[in-house]
Every structure is written in structure tokens, then in C-alpha cells.
Amino acid sequence: MYAINKFINIQKDAIFENGICLFKNEEDGFSAFMKRVYKERGINYPKFYKMDDLCKLAFIAAELLLGDEEEKDIALLLSNREASLDTDLKHQQTIQDAAAYFPSPAVFVYTLPNITIGEISIRHALKSESAFFIAERFPAERMQQYAQYLLKTKKAVKVLCGWVHFLNGEYRADFYLVETHGNIAHTIENINEITK
Amino acid sequence: MEVYIHDTHIISPLGFGTSENFEAVVSGRTALAPVFINNSIGSVYAASINDTVFDRYFEDLDATFKGSRIEKLMIAALKPVISKNKIKENTVLVLSTTKGNIKALEKNNLESALITELALHINNYFGFKTEPIVVSNACVSGVMALSVAKRFIETGGFSDAYVVAADELTPFVISGFQSFQAMSGEPCRPYDMNRSGVNLGEAAAAAYVSPEKRPDAVLMAGEAHINDANHISGPSRTGEGLLLSIEKAFKEAAISADEIDYISAHGTATLFNDEMEAIAFHRAGVQQAPLNSFKGYFGHTLGASGLLETILAAESLKNNTLVASLGYESPGTTQPLNIIAKPEKTPLKTVLKTASGFGGSNSALVLIKN
Amino acid sequence: MEALKQELKERIIEVLNLEDITPADIQDTEALFGDGLGLDSIDALELIVLLDKEYGIKLADPKQGKEIFQSVETMAQFIAENRTKL
Questions:
Q1: CATH number 3.30.530.20 is the correct assignment for the domain at B4-210
Q2: How far apart are CA B283 and CA A157, in angstroms?
Q3: Which 8-state DSSP code applies to residue B13?
Q4: Residue A125 carries which DSSP code?
């Protein structure tokens, strides 16, 4: 009944849309790679540069997925294993040494994984349902059930589901949009294929 | 399908047990006191669980368990609830926390700090046959966890659920809130004219949730979680997300604003949060309903707050007793609210619980007495 | 004072992650908040940390920030008068 039309995979060496390569990355570190995508897509959103790496990753994945999407009632269901641990470590560094104790609000604000959702909501003006789940690996079956629940009860018109991982320079993002009609059936098998 | 909240348990500085905590708040006892944190932070007004008292309590539950403190808090909250009910093949554990065992980072122990580890340990400890669902969504997590349990039960994904929520008082979080200039140097005063910020606290809470209609059950009639889409750390000035959450929760519960007998609000005592709530409640048409914040008793317990406060709101419902909003003296919001000044016995049937959090998150939950 | 203002501009750009902006782009008396550089509430809090970390100035009341952070000029003035770190 429900289906997926578009999905984005971001990996260290390339970004794919529906399995087709959009951007290749040979030598850039994460920041440089994301900045290149940001510039090539002609995005004008200075707040991007204030985001932590997890949010930059989520932002770009959502940008590529929702590009010209007009629907505003899109629920956001994101997940990962490490929450905001990458930025947590940075915050911990600012408070670890009593002699150099300078906690930074710009860092601390990113020590919650759901800020990824906040940034996407703001960028795309989505006043919608959302939730951030923590799991060992992408919870395909539960995501499928939850997305279906939101659509069936009309608590959302579309649902963006995603896995957004960033820790110590290692990253990946798998985002897909669930709608009422489309090309790829919203089954656990297909979700596993998209997020494998 | 209707899903209800049944047995609950609370571990907090005010006591170990739901009735103990409810009696404490009815009698106006606060857990807020000056607490020494460390040399960098010094002392702050906060609510902390006494380690000596808790350790003794926990030893009686389990003399051999050797996990982190937050694991012990969660186990202590869950144990009595699980012993009153069972764990079936298709029962799920829903866990809510904002920072989990973040203290482990002080010793650079990344593995121990992972929330997945915490969830795994709790899940295994009680022998759940399914993998846990973990919600980490800032300060709305506790309410969100309850509604996630409700939603999964409604879809038939699980038969019933245990919801557990906890967060600790840590230098990690205190330092962050201080950098935000969001902490008050005195006991917090939600909605008050002279409010000056939050006090932090720690607690653990647990609830059993199922479609069974027991006599004492409290129905989760409607719920929604709508983002402000405005700013990542400040709430929407017009209370947009909270308003939409409330309206959608009402729609699902098939009730109108005037049916709300009492509001258990978020009330963190920051200038912006309380003001935003007042605006949202007015726009939602519930400004007349008696309202309180529990932060004056427990401080802001982050990932635990949504569940802790919902449980106490349910107790108010069951006991037909309104609890005072501690710390409040004079109106401090541009839109007036009906702040509960002292405990009062009055028939209660329908309660609105709200929460808001960083990232523009908001949650609304309608509870109806059986 | 000129050296301090230059240093301030560099530090503001770094600490607030102002990409694609150079010190030359920031006028001494240009409004930092509002229309100027478009800084927001988190940036204001970050500048309070900057005052402490780099110049040893702890603000008694964070609300003082509004006046101090009006422009690079007002910031430099305040720092010159109150710094405890050199």
C-alpha cells in the first residue's frame, strides 16, 4: 500500500540517489565533502556552517532527499547507534580540565541526537511528527510499522525515515521517503536493501 | 484499540515509590537544595538522589548487580512494576533517556557511555524476549516513550510494554545549561514574575502499559509530537509546535478544550519556555484549566521528566487531588494562566500533559480516568 | 586598539563559524546582531564565553552582553577596559 520513490545513501566515497551516484569523493575529508555538495547544489543557508558533523550529514541527506518536495506534513523518524556521542566528546573536552574549563553553548546545543530533526524541520519548515530512536543497527521492521502507523492514522502525509551515523570521522546516512503511492513497495525487504 | 497506563514506580530524591512521591508533592516537599557538583562548577540548586539511601535500597533489590548508577536507577524503577505484571513473548521495553550513562565520558569510556549498552543491560536483566525501543529526543522523551509504546501496541507490533525513563544529575549537563545562562541561582519559580531559570534534577520512573482495561487504569486517549520548526534551542515565540500537538491530541481523544480538568505542563522556569507555554495554552483554549509544573519539586529531570510527571498527573487524576505549582507567587507570563496555588481536592477526569525540549520538540498527551 | 579589533574579528569569525567571511568584511561599527552579521542568541552566549576564555572577563550579568556586543568597536572598548588576560 505505501511506497518509496526516492532514497539517498551517503557514504565516505560517494553519495547515491536511488542507487545512482550523485557525487563521488576521492580525497576530501567529511567537512570538505559536505561543503562541496552544499556549494554544488547552490544551497544558501549560512546556519549550515554552525552545525556539528552529525547535523551537517543529516541536513545534506535531507536536502538531497527533499529537494523539490512541496508537502509540509512530513514526519521525521531518524535513528543511529551512538546518539550525539561525537559532539558529546567535544563538550566533555571543554569541561574535563578544571584549569581550562570553558563549556561552549554552540557545542552543547548539539549534544542531543534529535537536533538533527530540529535542523531539518527548520530548513524545510516542517511542523510535523518526529522521533529519534537509538538502536544497534537500522530498525527496519519497527521503522516500517511506525511509519505505517503515522500514515494510516493520518498523523503524517509522508514519512522520512533515516539512519544517520557520525563518530570519529566515520559516517553514513541512509534516508528514504515513504508515501502513499510509488515505485518501491514499503516492505521490510526493500527497506533492508535501501539501508544495507 | 485503547491503551492504558497501569502500575508505575518512581525513584526520586523525594522517595522510592509512586505513592511516596505523590504524598510528598501534595504536602509541598521539595527535593531542591544546594548541591556541590565539582570544583569547576561549585554548588548549584538541584535535586539529587542520596547515594547512601539509594544504595541501601538497591542492595535489598539485588545485592550482586554491578552496573552503572543509571542502570541501577532504571532497574529499581522497573522491578516492582514487572513483578506485578509479567513479561510475555511479545512484550517490549521502551526506554527514554537524554544522556544515559554520559558520566562514563569522564573516564573516556565510550563503550560504557553508549545508550545501546544501557538498553541492552536493562533488557537482558529482566529477560525481555524482544529488542528494546530506545527514545532519545531531548526533554520530551519521557512523554514520547509512552506514546511510542501506545502506538506500537495499537499497530499490533507488541502486546504490551514497560516504559522506563531516567537521567542523572551530571557535570556534563549542568555545565552545558550554565553556558546557556539558563540556570537559576535559587529554587526555580515556574511561571513566576521573578523566575530566573532552571534547576536540574535526577530521577527514574517506570510504567506498565497495555490494552487491558483494569479498574485503576488511566487511558492514553490522544497524543502528538509536533516540532516548532523555528530554532534549535529556543521555543517558538508563538508556541506553534505545542499548540499543534495539543490540538492533534485533542482530536485523537475526541475531546474539546473545555473538558480539560488539569494541565501538567513543562514549566522549566526559563523566561522563554514558560511564556511560550502560556501563549500556546491560550491559543488552544485551555488557559482556564488549573495548571502546575512539577519542576519546583524535582527540578528538571530531562529524559525522566515526561514519564515522572505523567505518572504524578495520573495520581492526581486517580486521587481527585490537584497539586500546587511549587515556586509560584505572582503571574509572570503575558497571557495569564490558572496556576494551582495550593493542593485541592476536586473531581478530575481528563488531564493534559505537555512537554517541550531542545530541537523544537513538543509533546501533548491526553489522559482520561477509567 | 587596532590590533585588538583585528584580533577580535578573527576570533569572532572562528568561534561563530562564519564561513566565507574575512575580517575585512566586518566593519568596526557595524551591528553584529539584528541585520548586521545576523548573529543569534547562541552566538551571543558564545561571545560571553569568548570574553572569559581569551580575555579573562567574567560578565556579572549576561544581560550586559546586549550593549557590549553591539559592534566590534564596543566590544574592543569593553575588553580594553576590563581584560585580565593579555
A1: no
A2: 24
A3: T
A4: T
Which of the other chains make 3 or more beta carbon contacts under 8 angstroms with chain A?
B, C
The pLDDT tens digits for B15-30 are 999 999 999 999 999 9
Host H or E run for residue C67: helix C65-68
Domain count, chain A: 1
The residue written with cell numbers 536483566 in the block is B125
CA distance C6 to C72: 9
Distance CA A84, CA A165 (A): 9
Q: Same topology for domains B4-210 and B218-369, yes or no?
A: yes
From the list C19, C38, C46, the residue facing A49 with the nearest CB is C19
Element (H, E) at B282: helix B271-284
How far is the CA of B214 from the CAs of A55, A154, B217, B312, B363, in angstroms?
A: 44, 29, 5, 18, 26
Task: Give the ipTM.
Answer: 0.98
Looking at chain A, which residue has its C-alpha nearest residue B248? A155
Q: Identify the CA nearest to B219 among candidates B147, B155, B281, B148.
A: B147
For the segment B320-346, what is each residue's pLDDT rounded down to a tens digit? 999 999 999 999 999 999 999 999 999
Q: Is B163 helix (H, G, I), strand (E, B) or coil?
A: strand
Chain A, chain B: beta-carbon pairs less than 8 Å apart: 156
Per domain, the residue ranges of chain B are: 4-210, 218-369
Q: How far apart are the C-alpha atoms of A152 and B118, rounded to whole Å?
A: 33
* Closest listed residue to residue B25, CA positions, set B231, B327, B294: B294
**Helix, strand, coil content of chain B in percent (nearest 5):** 35, 25, 40
Superfamily of domain B218-369: Thiolase/Chalcone synthase (3.40.47.10)
> Is A105's CB within 8 Å of C16's CB?
no
Residue A118: give the domain boundaries: 3-194
CATH code for the domain in which residue A123 is found:
3.40.47.10
